[in-house]
Amino acid sequence: MSSARTPVRPLGTGEDSERRVSSPFLSSSRSLLQPADSRRQESAAGSTGNVNVQILAAIKSLQEHVADLQAKSTQPAASSIEQCAVSKKAPKELLTSIHSVVRHLRERLDAPMQWDTSSGFSSPENMRVTSEIVTACVNEKYPASVVQKATKKYFTTLKRRSRLQTNNKLPDARNKQRRLQRKHHKLQNRKVALSGSTTLTQEQKEKFSSILRIEYMSSEESAEESGEDEHMGERLKVLLIHILPWRNPSVNEMFLSLDRKSARKRTSRAAEMCRKRCRASATEPSSPSGFTAKPPPSCPAWAKVSDC
Description:
Layout: H1 15-21, H2 24-32, H3 36-73, H4 79-86, H5 92-107, H6 124-137, H7 144-166, H8 170-195, H9 202-209, E1 219-228, E2 235-242, H10 249-264, H11 268-273, E3 276-279
Parallel strand pairs: 2-3
Antiparallel strand pairs: 1-2
Helix pairs in contact: 5-6, 5-7, 6-7, 8-10
């Protein structure tokens, strides 16, 4: 008795095979089984896209910055003129020009002109001189308003000098100005020494910088020292330092330390030109200018002696 055998269907063929191939699970498995190189390529493609976006954003920002700079460069150059008009101190170039014109008007042979310091700046005679000065000094850089202001300031200086000379007070005024200039110079040197100090902490620098001001500085006056200079044959001049009586000794030591630091950085030429300084004794009279017997109202407690 023969029985009909069912034909064996090869594996992987037919409808079942097609269903297995189209299975979602199998598709996801195949994506996981992709080679690593293929996945890296896809990741690199995504990174490249992000980099391109960043580059485009940077280019756009740079273009906006360039456009802003171009807009500023095309603005009229009136800022320097406005600064001259607002500034309390006239530019050195303008002052030199005014001084030259004043000297030329005074020394010229035909119809010399000069200010009358016994009259006011707005007097008719002085206004004619001022008009000549302004006309000669006005240019594109300095308009008439700036020149007029600087000219008036120079007239005020000459008038004050003439008054002091008439009252025989000009030498005292010049000595006072020299003392003030020395104070400002020493104050600047102390600030530089404090800023460059490596032994003080930042907190100490901020503390001491609050008293690096003119009103906390001792007064200095010129005095002749007995003896003669070996090279010049002249009597040597020294500066007598009158220590402020209300200043705390610790502040005195700090100032002295800053002066030493500043002296070590001087060149040999600067050291030769620097005047000798010595402390005045208690019996010597103090300098008539710049000497304050009482501390300023804003003086901190640690910067003055306890009984002040």
